């Protein structure tokens, strides 16, 4: 009987994979961001199961989406003021929102796919730090050309909400996933609305440069909050490669009927929205 039990146990041990105890045995996630900035211990992926998308994290994600998306729209109620400050025509100053949106389109195409290839925590921190730092240049700009160039690059970097939304889905349990995505997306929409209100009010009672100093302050505040509460996750699909991701996007864009339909509806909606939202200023 004892020999039979031993043979059975031996067979089961060969069939059953060896338990590693924690995810850290199989998932190699550094304990530091950028090789030198320590990650708070409780936010490390391998310390336990993935973090729940709790109330505090929802609020931080929502406001981070708000005050990064707002970068795209601060300039719109300031166009006439900027034309007078830089001594250029209205036609020339109208290039600023155009270049900002063009940069945003480039960022959606070329930067957002990095969310599948690298760890999203350092990616998000780098995006917010870069856009906040470039906002300092906007606040100090002395010429329209400099303002236009920096606006384009800020547009490229203002894809934080598009990285936060899928991260919110990954952090949430299945029954809360739709609600979590909605909270982050609502933050993005709030940023579109509140940016023009804040910019208009601040410029009405002080200098237009203070609009961008305010943008710097709120983005650095969001950077600090993200550093303190954003959990770390390993890269989702690093084996695909950057150009592999771009290739898959191109394939899906012509082979998935539901995706094609959603893109067409979104393009039409965005065109209608932009027609009045930009020109109303």
Please provide a written account of the structure.
This protein is an all-alpha fold and 281 residues long. It has 2 domains: 52-239, MFS general substrate transporter like domains (Growth Hormone, Chain: A, Up-down Bundle); 241-276. Helices cover 67% and strands 1% of the residues. It is built from 12 helices and 2 strands. The protein has a two-stranded antiparallel ribbon. Helix 8 packs antiparallel against helix 9. The longest helix is centred in the C-terminal third of the chain and has 29 residues, at 177-205. The relative contact order is 0.15.
Assembly level: single chain
Sheet having the most strands: 2 strands, antiparallel
Mean pLDDT: 84
Number of strands: 2
Global structural class: mainly alpha
From the 3D coordinates, which CATH architecture of the largest domain would you assign?
Up-down Bundle
Strand content: under 5%
**Helical content class:** 55-70%
Strand order of the largest sheet: 1-2
Protein name: Major facilitator superfamily (MFS) profile domain-containing protein
GO molecular function, one term: transmembrane transporter activity
Main location: membrane
Domain Major facilitator superfamily (MFS) profile: 55-281
Brief summary:
GO terms for molecular function: transmembrane transporter activity. The protein has 12 helices and 2 strands; from the N terminus they run H-E-E-H-H-H-H-H-H-H-H-H-H-H.
